[in-house]
Structures are given as C-alpha cells and as structure tokens.
C-alpha cells in the first residue's frame, strides 16, 4: 500500500492536515535517509528527539510528516499527521505499507533474558528439517530459508521487521521464528505484527541501564503477552516465578513448560554430559546434542511451540534430537587435549549456568580457566557479579575486555574487580587485551583442561570507540592452541 490514507489504517490519529491521497515512496524514521516522497516519522529517542529533525526531513524531500508534536510553522506543501505515540504508529504504518505480511505467515516471538537465540534457531532448524519454508529473525542472523541476511540487532527496527516478513511471505515461507528483545518491545519495533504465539524463556538481571528497575524490565517482557490476540498461544517457563506474571490478564491460550513444576510440557533430565543431554519426555528417553540443564528448558519450549503449531510430538522429538543449535552457544573446540568452550554468556544467570554445567560434567583432575569481560555502555551493575561468579566457579579466571564501546576498558575492569574477594585474588588475572587474555589462558592450560571464553559467542568483532574490529574468540583460541600443540 502506498497511498497515505491506506497506510494510516488502524493508526490512532490525533489530527491531520493536507492531502491524504498522497503517494508515499517509503517510510523512514531517520532524517538522514529521507528521499523525495518519503514519509518521515519523528520519534523521541534515548539520545536525541526525531522532532528536532523535521525541518531537515522537509528540506530533503519528505512529503508526509508523522509526529507527536506539530511544529509552529507547518509547510502547506506537506501532509501533517499527529499521533499519540509515533513509535507505535511506525509499526502499524510499516505493516500496512508492506501489505500486512504477518497475516500470511505464522509468526512466533520469543522473549526472555537468556535463551531467545537458541530457541528461535532450534525452531528454524526444526521446521526447515520438517520440510517447511521458514524465516528467522535473530541476534546471530536473519534467514529466509537458506538465504542469510546479516542482523544488526536482536530484533530489527519496525520497518525492517515488516520488510523482512514481506520477503519471507513472497519466498513462500509459512513460519517465522523471531526474537523479541525488551528494547524492541518498549520501542514498539513489533507494533502492527500479528503473532500466532509468544514464548517466555526466563528473566534475570540485565539491561537495568535501559529499563532502570527490574519491575520495568518485567513489564517490558509482559507487554508482549498483554498484546497477544485471543487466538494465539502464550507459552511460558513454569519454573520461572515470572512465568505466571506473563500470563496475568493475557487473552491468549496459556501454556507452560517446566522441569520442576506441573506443566503442559514436562521433562526430566536423565543425564547431562559434554556430549549432550538425555531427557525423559512423557516416559520416553530422548537424546539431544545440546549441553546443560538450561538447554533442557530451551528444548522443551521448542517442543511446546511445535506441538501448539500442530506438529506430531514424536516426529518433533526425533528431528530435534539431531539438531545442533546456534553458533557461539557452548561451542566446543578440542585441540591438543585441551577443550575450549566459546559461549555467549553475557549475563550473571547465563554465566552461572554455563560454569555450573561445566563443573557438573567435569571428571575431576582438570582445571577450568575462564576468560570473561563485560560490555561497555551497558548495565554496569552486572560487572562485579559476573567477575565474582567466574572466579568462584573456576580454578583460574582472566578478566578482560568484551566490547568496550565508548567506555575506557580499564574502568570496566575496575568495576568487575570490585566483585573479587581478597581470598580469590590469587587465582585472578586482569588482562585488558582480549587476544592476550585468551593467549594466556592457552599458555596456562595443560592436557585435559577446559578453557571457557564467555561473553561474545558468535560475534566476529570487538567494538571499540564506534569502530568494529575483526575479532573471533573461536578463531583466536584455535590459533593459540594449534601453536602450542606444534611446539
Ligand atoms: C538504546 C536503544 O535501544 N537504541 C535504539 C533506538 O535508538 P535511540 O532511541 O537511541 O535513537 P536516537 O539516536 O535517540 O534518535 C531518536 C530518533 O531520531 C532519529 N534521528 C537521529 C539523528 C538524526 O540526524 N536524524 C534523525 O532522524 C533517529 O533515527 C531516531 O528515530 O532506536 C534505534 C532505531 O531503531 C536503534 O538502532 C537503537 O539501537 C541502538 C543502536 C542499540 O545499541 N540498541 C541495543 C541496546 C539493542 O536494541 N539491543 C537489543 C538486544 C538487547 C538484548 O536483549 O540483549 C536489540 O534488539 O538488539
Ligand atoms: N534457557 C536459558 N537459561 C539460562 N541461560 C541460558 C539459556 N539459554 C541459553 N543460556 C545462556 O545464555 C547465553 C545466551 O543465549 P542466547 O543467545 O540463546 O540468549 P538470548 O536471549 O538470545 O541473548 P540476547 O539477549 O543477547 O539476544 C548462552 O550462551 C548461554 O550461556
Ligand atoms: N544484545 C546484548 C548483547 C551483549 C553482548 C556482549 N558481548 C556485550 O557487548 O555486552 C546487548 O546489546 O546488550
Ligand atoms: Mg539473542
């Protein structure tokens, strides 16, 4: 749809002035991307207010301005649309512009602090293996069947979400599995989307820099469930005490998965080794390639979604049993008798799970050496907690840089060091340069040892002062372990 009045269908309007039949070339929310004939949406942001760029958008050819506050001098050549919430209007308009693709594809959104990428990636692989044409929107990558499109965010912006869904529908996709980050929910990047179901994995400490309080963070996740229609399903982790909170006043069909509490989808962990997990599901033992109890939750969530979408439970378990999961999540690299594990644990809960999983499957004599850092310009309060966990649960810990972004790496490391008690200092090293830190871990390792490199998983860059330099934990650790093996 390219005619303004069609694009505004279902947008709650405050006022309009000008031609409503005007043709719109594209919808943009960044004045720097405006072209002749664009519709520019002014959004108040965390750094600046899009309303300050309305003049610039008009000068560069915008034909329609959608905003929350009208300027005093409105050019008569422009159509002015005032709305209550511009970010929300953007989602609805983008959906209309791309002919509401989510009405022609089954979209499932997954939210939670940890496990979103793992869950949607498993779902994408599962449905593809079962013969469906499937789309994926994730932190690691976006996919339309086998075609890979790079991802810049966990959840793309509202226009990109709709454009990607349109491509999926045109490519014949019947299902799309997507991550819904708390930032995306608050910023309405998924407004206008028709969901067939949503999944809640868990909630723990993260992103308090953005949401400010844990209550606000919970509220952000809950909004995904509050907005679900009656004919959708709401599948939550019944062992997380906020699972029930997500279902409060939810119109959709409530469903639960759990290892400990009574639930619609239940399993018991039979064994957990570095080779994989064995689960008892409805009295049947099933083996999976993923490692750690936390992945039992992800697998159950996936099974729940598939069954709720009408798939046969036995077939799902059989196919799921052969699937590997997402890149950079518990990736094992064994060189010269040393096992390196590259994992995206960047929250205290994730780090604790991964460390405890490794400690639970250790045979005894080997050392666990952990290399970990915390991202800059992100929640500072998780830094001492993550350092403390790494030191307490490992034989040696090397604190290093993650993505410092615009912060000084040394200052981030000081925040981390504050979590290390005096008795643990003997087994803690601080090395700012991540490559040196990984190299040191390799040099300290003996045959049989395990090196955990946490925080960056699949990332193939390190972001320092706005520049992304190539950096790949798996590549770096392999290089050093190979060098040591040759000597
Ligand atoms: C904190 C945050 O989430 N910021 C996102 C937000 O930007 P913002 O609100 O800061 O925008 P702003 O810079 O203040 O600008 C406000 C408005 O003015 C416009 N503008 C700005 C300048 C100009 O010259 N002209 C102009 O029109 C901007 O396009 C924007 O519409 O909206 C932008 C457009 O959608 C996002 O790109 C941006 O993501 C930033 C880059 C980011 O790093 N976000 C991370 C924290 C994030 O979203 N992470 C989650 C995953 C988190 C997790 O679960 O682990 C994700 O979904 O990726
Ligand atoms: N269900 C889970 N519960 C707790 N920790 C988990 C769970 N699943 C994965 N993890 C841990 O969290 C890390 C991140 O997992 P994943 O990428 O699936 O989460 P995410 O929610 O997509 O993260 P992000 O918010 O950064 O996109 C993993 O590397 C692992 O350490
Ligand atoms: N989606 C998360 C990823 C964090 C990954 C970690 N490597 C970091 O840079 O902090 C974020 O943007 O906060
Ligand atoms: Mg993710």
From TrEMBL:
Keyword vocabulary terms for this entry: ATP-binding, Cell cycle, Cell division, Cell shape, Cell wall biogenesis/degradation, Cytoplasm, Ligase, Magnesium, Nucleotide-binding, Peptidoglycan synthesis
SUPFAM superfamilies according to UniProt: MurD-like peptide ligases, catalytic domain, MurD-like peptide ligases, peptide-binding domain, MurE/MurF N-terminal domain
Pathway annotation from the record: Cell wall biogenesis; peptidoglycan biosynthesis
Keyword Electron transport: no
Domain Mur ligase N-terminal catalytic residue range list: 24-98
Modified residues (N6-carboxylysine): 221
EC assignment: 6.3.2.13
Highest taxon of the lineage: Bacteria
Gene Ontology CC terms, in alphabetical order: cytoplasm
Ligand binding (ATP): 112-118
Residues annotated as domain Mur ligase central: 110-306
Residues annotated as binding UDP-N-acetyl-alpha-D-muramoyl-L-alanyl-D-glutamate: 31, 154-155, 181, 187, 189
Cofactor dependency: Mg(2+)
Description of post-translational modifications: Carboxylation is probably crucial for Mg(2+) binding and, consequently, for the gamma-phosphate positioning of ATP.
Domain Mur ligase C-terminal: 328-457
Amino acids binding meso-2,6-diaminopimelate: 378, 402-405, 455, 459
Family stated for the protein in its record: Belongs to the MurCDEF family. MurE subfamily.
Protein's UniProt name: UDP-N-acetylmuramoyl-L-alanyl-D-glutamate--2,6-diaminopimelate ligase
Organism placement in taxonomy: Bacteria, Pseudomonadati, Bacteroidota, Cytophagia, Cytophagales
Gene name for this UniProt entry: murE
